[in-house]
Specification:
It is a single chain. The protein is mainly α and about 60 residues long. The protein has a domain of about 30 residues. The protein contains three helices and no strands. The chain is elongated. It holds the Pfam family SASP_gamma. One of its GO terms (biological process) is sporulation resulting in formation of a cellular spore. This is Small, acid-soluble spore protein gamma-type.
């Protein structure tokens, strides 16, 4: 088995580098923006409304 280097995961990811990038993203207010940009708000609201309607229908049975 290969010896793991300090500050690296088993996959070879540099832990310090990832932490630094996360800190910079959070500081710049960019944390999570890639997900927000891909979200269709109307579609999510519609799906939530449908789920609530099904839940209400199932609880009345």
């Amino acid at each position: 088995m290969a010896k793991q280097q300090p500050n690296k995961t088993a996959a070879g990811t540099n832990i310090q580098e990832v932490r630094q990038q996360n800190a910079q993203s959070a500081q710049a207010g960019q944390f999570g923006t890639e997900f927000a940009a891909e979200t269709n708000v109307q579609q999510v609201q519609q799906q939530n409304a449908q789920a609530e309607a099904r839940k209400a229908q199932n609880s009345s049975k």
